[in-house]
Design goal:
With 64 residues, the chain is α+β, with helices and mostly antiparallel strands. The protein has one domain: Factor Xa Inhibitor (Irregular), CATH 4.10.410. Helices cover 39% and strands 11% of the residues. A hairpin with a 5-residue loop joins strand 1 and strand 2. The protein is elongated.
């Protein structure tokens, strides 16, 4: 059987934390930033964890 390949798009967007959770960046920070206030843009900089319901699927996709 050939070796399993990870999905390149998922590998670029997600990473694993030390305790096995999947980390992601927040959306809505790429354009149309002048109508978003400073506090909102600052909070969008921070990374967050993937929702528990899809965490296993994402971990399978990145297969690190």
């Amino acid at each position: 059987m050939p070796k399993m390949k990870s999905r390149s798009a998922a590998r670029k967007r997600f990473s694993l934390t030390a305790d096995g959770h999947v980390k992601r960046k927040k959306a809505f920070k790429s354009h149309i930033l002048n109508k978003k206030d400073r506090k909102r843009k600052r909070n969008l900089r921070k990374s967050t964890l993937v929702y528990e319901g899809v965490e296993k699927k994402v971990a399978l996709m990145i297969q690190l």
